[in-house]
């Protein structure tokens, strides 16, 4: 069953795009149809961006290239997808955490909100060949991360993990 690299990254890209979409939904003010289109556009942008930088045999290779980052600058992939549904960068900065790092690697998608936050795993699947995907040391404080760096800490967010 030899499929191209593009086939192999679908689960990871889907988990990452769903996560960013959930952050937007939780912030409110964006319609469901817009959110659906945003998610599709983000998945497409990520697929294009990653297709020559996806190495299932060496999952960490190209990790920096695939890292999605909001750090007082909007990540171009998120910005592009938001532009397709008419959301400005200014609006995105209001809706999304000001510090967000999302790592989209073969077999694992993880994120960190805030510069000093814990790294939380969104998606994990075993690597072929019997290797076990690495366990991250701190998963206990992940739910707390959602409340850090937001203007309204009273909002409650639902964690959703995807596994295969």
UniProtKB/TrEMBL annotation:
PROSITE patterns xrefs: BTG_2
SUPFAM superfamilies per the UniProt record, alphabetical: BTG domain-like
Domain of life: Eukaryota
GO BP terms: negative regulation of cell population proliferation
UniProt-listed SMART domains: btg1
One term under GO cellular component: cytoplasm
UniProt-listed Pfam families: BTG
All residue ranges annotated as the Anti-proliferative protein domain in the record: 96-115
Family: Belongs to the BTG family.
Listed name of the protein: BTG1 protein
Source organism: Sylvia atricapilla (blackcap)
Gene giving rise to this polypeptide: Btg1_0
């Amino acid at each position: 069953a030899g499929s191209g690299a593009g086939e192999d990254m679908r689960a990871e890209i889907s988990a990452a795009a769903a996560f960013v979409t959930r952050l937007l939904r939780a912030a409110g003010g964006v319609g469901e149809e817009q959110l659906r289109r945003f998610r599709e556009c983000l998945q497409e942008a990520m697929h294009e961006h990653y297709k020559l930088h996806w190495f299932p045999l060496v999952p960490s290779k190209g990790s920096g290239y695939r890292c999605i980052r909001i750090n007082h600058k909007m990540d171009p992939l998120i910005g592009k997808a938001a532009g397709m549904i008419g959301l400005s960068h200014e609006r995105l900065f209001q809706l999304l955490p000001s510090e967000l790092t999302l790592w989209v690697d073969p077999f694992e998608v993880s994120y960190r909100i805030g510069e000093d936050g814990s790294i939380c795993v969104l998606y994990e699947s075993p690597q072929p060949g019997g290797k076990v995907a690495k366990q991250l040391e701190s998963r206990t404080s992940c739910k707390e991360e959602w409340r850090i760096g937001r203007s309204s800490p009273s909002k409650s967010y639902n964690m959703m993990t995807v596994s295969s």
